[in-house]
Every structure is written in structure tokens, then in C-alpha cells.
Design brief:
Number of helices: 20
CATH topology of the largest domain: Heat Shock Protein 90
Number of domains: 3
CATH class of the largest domain: Alpha Beta
Helix content: 25-40%
Radius of gyration: 28 Å
Strand content: 15-25%
Shape: flat
Length: 647
């Protein structure tokens, strides 16, 4: 080991980050990222504090306002953050909450039985990452006020007015720090999705979202009100709105076991995909955990017992699997637990063993009673499950056809139409999924043979939103993709066997191309979601126009860029405006230069936001499902945002 730097390393070089400086130094550790996702997370943290008041029974309305300059104001009618002196800190409690990490009423002090948020660090983290933050508290007939700038107290807490002694609540206004966040513009629809979900999970709570920014784009959005007396039953109805429910009821189970409050709502529909979402103290758990395990165990045992007892399954027939019973299921599992234990810092998976027992007990008892009282519904679900069981057996046989006899890296069993790359290190490789033989031919000629593979698809692949797995695996184009990727599918999926670091969907810049890209994304989202979660899926961006003047060539990827180029070079008769409608219209050199060359191309990464899972599912169902009316409504609502229409 070298001693060259030893003399420069002294005690003075050990940094001590005091107060909230640690948050400003490493914001990603506290809110995940400084991207748009982290920016919106600030809002959720303040709202979660207000929701905790609602869960405790003290808050009925929460208002969230986006103001000019992308400030955020959150108002609740809860008890108001305490303003008396915290004896340990020697400061008002409200100041402690906003300036000291891990300070709050969520650590066993009796303030809350259950709570969400970032383990009590939420308010102080938001304060640390804001240009400024102001808090007003109504308590005991007085309005208290304090302002902070980048986490530091500007002036002591003071009384600025009086109010009705019966009137209580907290108002927090903050402006995110533009030196920390990559983007400080709030998206109304992102907040709308999260706040609607929060209202579903807290029955009776009213949440109002207002956009008070004065620019023209937001004028049509202004205000949304979310208020669901039916709670998660209405959530299931909302999620199933683009599907045909198999029965009218939303089955609802509710109960408390060992201080764990359990709520479950479920309803089957005529689709072939399962959409089950689990929550703990209103926080989504994308990776499930013990509460989800308890639900699945109860569901599987209860339906098998019913099917056996009522001779829907013969003695010689095997039990229905949980997967069979959950085909076409939409379900919400929501529990409130005093001391949740999450695996990892990201709250992705619940670890409390008592939650498994509590959910299993409540669901088993109440679902059994429901099935006995509603034999017609029970029969419909069992019959669908038995059909799913038969299809699963057929799918297993079809899946075997996609497995290579040798490893995919040996080249054996790969699709004949695949032009593979020569580099065998997946980290260096990428595969282009290309629409049609014409574009495929150009792409094969244009590519870098060492690192770029080309898989041309013939026509449009099957819409997997409307098909069972056995039929999906019978589709030649889908089988070709599964085999080329090397990961397998469904229960055989193994991302460590992925043969390419990037899967790039490259389709024409027209309506048909967009439809094919959507079909491919639907397949990947439903059956290989980890490819999206792990950041392996991209969309290529071919140019819309080629402009030629005096033998010089420009490419434009949007109408705005076209206008900018024409303004720069002059609009005259020497220009030629070719509108590309297909990749096949480009020769190999043009395709390489504009769309495939890693040095010059534009790739769009397909991102997966686990906090928006339910809304992602609704969008896929709306666009790709059987129901026409929700799709028409979606198109009417979003038509004004459409660009580059191929008319």
C-alpha cells in the first residue's frame, strides 16, 4: 500500500454534517432521487403527515395547491402540530419537527397508533430540500407562524393572529430548491394519481387538488376532488372500469387481529391478468410481503375447499393453484399496523410475520361466509379458475417450445430471423426489435455487427391484454422475442440470463408504428416487467423529416425542430421537406446516422414508477382492453396533447 497520501489525511478531514446538511449533501438517500420523481415525493411526505392525522381520526379534509413558481401548499384540519416547548430540545415542537431528523409523533410517544411517511423524517427532509418553507399552525385559538430557508430557522415561532378555539389544523407552504432538483416543475396528473389513490385508501377523507399556476396549459385542470366513502371497494371498481366484471359485487373483508386492521376488496373480471396491490399504512408495497402472502394463502385454500365441497372439482383432479384462482382478479390488500417492519430502506416489502396471520384469518373467515351466501358468484369464479388451470397446462407445453436445448449464447435454438451480434458479453450488446422485413433489412446492413442484434417482426404481434398465456406462447413473433432475450417468461423468467443490456423498440414514426410499439410494451409490462424495472427497455427515435439544401442534410425529430431548422437556413425553394413515414424509406447509412449510432441517436428509456402501479394498469387496460367506451373517453380527454399526427 502506498503511503504517499498519509500525511494529507488528518482528523480535520473527517466531516461532521450537522442538522439537515446531511440531507442536502445526499438527498437521494432520503427521497430516492433529485429527478422529477424525488420532486413529487416532497409533496407526498407533507401529505402523509396530514393523512396520519386522518388515520388517527382527527382530520377530514386535506387541500393541496400548486402555486405560481411551483410552490406547494398543504392544508389540513387536523389537530395542528404542537407548538409548546419540547423539553428535550428546548424548542417549540413544530420547530423540532421541521429541523431535526427522526423527530415526530411516530416513535412510540403516543402521537399515532399507525403512520406512513419516511419513518418520521419527512417534514425535516422537505424543509432541508426547499428554498424556503413556511408553516402556520392553528391551535388554542391562535395562529402560529415560522419560516425556514434551506432548513434553517429564519425567526422564532410567533403568534400572527387569532382563530376560533374550535378551529385547528396545519398549513405548510414550500418552494423546492432549484440548486438540488433537476426539474422543479410539478406535474398535475402525477399528483392527481397519487392523491386519488390516497383518498381510496382512507375512506371518508376528502382530498382537494388545485392548480393555481397562471400559465395557459393548466387552465383546464384547475381542481379535482377525491372523496370515497366506499374506500378500497371503490378503488377496485375504478381499477376494473375498463374490464367486464364477472359479478356485480366487490367482495369486501374487514377486521382487526392483534391490533392489525385488515381491509381487503376483490372482484374478478373477464381478463387473463391479475392486478393485486398491497398497502401498509397507506404506503404501497410493490414487492408485497407477509400481508400479501396471507391473502394469497387464504384465497387459495378457501376456493379449493369450496370447489371440493361442492363437487366443482372431482376427487381425481388436482387442486387449483393460486395462479389459477387469481386469473382476472383485481384486489386491494390494505393493512394498518402499529410497528411495520420493511425489508430494505425503500419500504418495498413488509416483513411482519403477524401480518400474514392477521390477513389470512380475516380473509379466510369472511370469504368462506361470502361464498356460502353467494353460490352463483362462487361457481363463476371456480369455473373461470378451472379453465385457467387447463390453459396453464397448455401454456407449460407451449413454453417448452421457447427453451433452447443448448444455451442461447451458443447460438443454438435462436430464431432464424435474428441477426445476432458477435460480442458474447451481454453488457456490451443491444437488440433492436424492428417492424417489418424492409426496415429489418436496412437495420441489418446499418448495424454495428459486434454489439447490435436485429430481430425483425412480421406485422403486429398479438394483443396480450386479450389473450391467455397458452395463446400468447403460440404466437411466433412473441416466441422469437422470448428466445432471443434468453430470460424465459412468466414463472421461468430469470433476468440474469438476459442476452442484451438494451432492448430497443424501433418502429415507424406513424400511427401503425406507435400501435406496434404499444403492443410490444404491453407484452413486456404484463409478462417481463423486470426488464422495464431494471431499465433495459428503450424506444428508438427515428427522425420525422429530412431537410436538404445545397447538398447539406439536416434531420428534424419534431415539428418544432423542423421550424427551427427552416428558420435558420431560410425558407426558400432550394429546400427539400421529406416526411419519413417508415424506417424503410431510409437507406442503411441514414438509419445508422439518425437512429442507431450510439454517438448521435436519441433513445427514450421506458421507466417504471412503482408508486403509480395502479394507474399504469388502468392506462394499459383502457388502451388495450375490450371496452370501447373508456378508450373513447381517454382519447377525447388527451387528444389535445397529441403531436406529429400522421393524417
Amino acid at each position: 500500500m502506498s503511503n504517499n497520501n498519509n500525511n494529507n489525511y488528518s482528523g480535520d478531514q473527517i466531516q461532521i454534517l450537522e442538522g439537515l446538511e446531511a440531507v442536502r449533501k445526499r438527498p437521494g438517500m432520503y427521497i430516492g432521487s433529485t429527478s422529477s420523481k424525488g420532486l413529487h415525493h416532497l409533496v407526498y411526505e407533507i401529505v402523509d403527515n396530514s393523512v396520519d392525522e386522518a388515520l388517527a381520526g382527527y382530520c377530514s379534509t386535506i387541500e393541496v395547491e400548486i402555486g405560481d413558481g411551483n410552490t406547494i401548499t398543504v392544508i389540513d384540519d387536523g389537530r395542528g402540530i404542537p407548538v409548546d416547548i419540547n423539553k428535550k430540545a428546548g424548542k417549540p415542537a413544530v420547530e423540532v419537527v421541521f429541523t431535526i431528523l427522526h423527530a415526530g409523533g411516530k416513535f412510540g410517544g403516543g402521537g399515532y397508533k399507525v403512520s406512513g411517511g419516511l419513518h418520521g423524517v419527512g417534514a425535516s427532509v422537505v424543509n432541508a430540500l426547499s428554498d424556503w418553507l413556511e408553516v402556520k399552525v392553528k391551535r388554542d385559538g391562535k395562529i402560529h407562524f415560522q419560516r425556514y430557508e434551506r432548513g434553517h430557522v429564519v425567526a422564532p415561532l410567533k403568534v400572527i393572529g387569532e382563530c376560533d378555539p374550535e378551529e385547528t389544523g396545519t398549513m405548510v407552504t414550500f418552494k423546492p430548491d432549484g440548486t438540488i432538483f433537476e426539474d422543479t416543475v410539478y406535474d398535475f396528473d402525477t399528483l392527481k394519481t397519487r392523491l386519488r389513490e390516497t383518498a381510496f385508501l382512507t375512506k371518508g377523507l376528502k382530498i382537494i387538488l388545485r392548480d393555481k399556476r397562471t400559465n395557459e396549459e393548466n387552465q383546464a385542470k384547475t381542481e379535482r376532488v377525491f372523496h370515497y366513502e366506499g374506500g378500497i371497494k371503490e378503488f377496485v371498481t375504478y381499477l376494473n372500469r375498463g374490464k367486464e366484471a364477472l359479478f356485480e359485487d366487490v367482495i369486501y373483508c374487514e377486521g382487526t387481529r392483534d391490533e392489525i386492521y385488515v381491509e381487503v376488496a376483490l372482484q374478478h373480471n373477464n381478463s387473463y391478468t391479475e392486478n393485486t396491490y398491497s398497502f401498509v399504512n397507506n404506503i404501497i408495497t410493490p414487492e408485497g410481503g407477509t400481508h400479501l402472502e396471507g391473502f394469497k394463502r387464504a384465497l387459495t385454500k378457501t376456493f379449493n375447499d369450496y370447489a371440493r365441497a361442492n363437487k366443482l372439482l372431482k376427487d381425481s383432479e388436482q387442486n387449483l393453484s393460486g395462479e389459477d384462482i387469481r386469473e382476472g382478479l383485481t384486489a386491494i390488500i390494505s393493512i394498518k399496523i402499529p410497528e411495520p417492519q420493511f425489508e430494505g430502506q425503500t419500504k418495498q416489502k413488509l416483513g411482519n410475520s403477524e401480518a400474514r396471520t392477521a390477513v389470512d384469518s380475516v380473509v379466510s373467515e369472511q370469504l368462506k361466509y361470502y361464498l356460502e351466501q353467494n353460490p352463483q358468484v362462487a361457481r363463476v369464479i371456480c369455473e373461470k379458475s378451472i379453465l385457467a388451470q387447463r390453459a396453464r397446462e397448455a401454456a407449460r407445453k407451449a413454453r417448452d417450445l421457447t427453451r433452447s436445448r443448448k444455451t442461447a449464447l451458443d447460438g443454438a435454438g435462436l430464431p432464424g430471423k435474428l441477426a445476432d451480434c458477435s460480442d458474447k458479453n451481454p453488457a456490451n450488446c443491444e437488440i433492436f426489435i424492428v417492424e417489418g422485413d424492409s426496415a429489418g433489412g436496412s437495420a441489418k446492413t446499418a448495424r454495428s455487427r459486434a454489439t447490435q442484434a436485429i430481430l425483425p417482426l412480421r406485422g403486429k404481434i398479438l394483443n396480450v391484454e386479450k389473450a391467455r398465456l397458452d395463446r400468447i406462447l403460440g404466437n411466433a413473433e412473441i416466441r422469437a422475442m422470448i428466445t432471443a432475450f434468453g430470460t424465459g417468461i412468466h414463472e421461468d423468467f430469470d433476468i440474469t440470463k438476459l442476452r442484451y443490456d438494451k432492448i430497443i423498440i424501433m418502429t415507424d414514426a406513424d400511427v401503425d408504428g406507435a400501435h406496434i410499439a404499444t403492443l410490444l410494451l404491453t407484452f413486456l409490462y404484463r409478462f417481463m416487467p423486470d426488464l422495464i424495472k431494471e431499465g433495459h427497455v428503450y424506444l428508438a427515435t427515428p427522425p420525422l423529416y429530412q431537410i436538404v439544401k445545397n447538398k447539406k442534410v439536416w434531420y428534424a425529430y419534431s415539428d418544432d425542430e423542423l421550424n427551427r431548422i427552416l428558420t435558420e437556413i431560410g425558407r426558400d425553394n432550394n429546400n427539400k421537406i421529406q416526411r419519413y413515414k417508415g424506417l424503410g424509406e431510409m437507406d442503411a447509412e441514414q438509419l445508422w446516422e439518425t437512429t442507431m449510432d450510439p454517438k448521435t441517436r436519441i433513445l427514450k428509456k421506458v421507466q417504471y414508477d412503482e408508486t403509480l402501479l395502479s394507474e399504469i394498469d388502468v392506462t394499459f387496460t383502457t388502451l388495450m382492453g375490450d371496452q370501447v367506451e373508456p378508450r373513447r373517453e381517454f382519447i377525447e380527454a388527451n387528444a389535445r396533447f397529441a403531436q406529429n399526427l400522421d393524417i
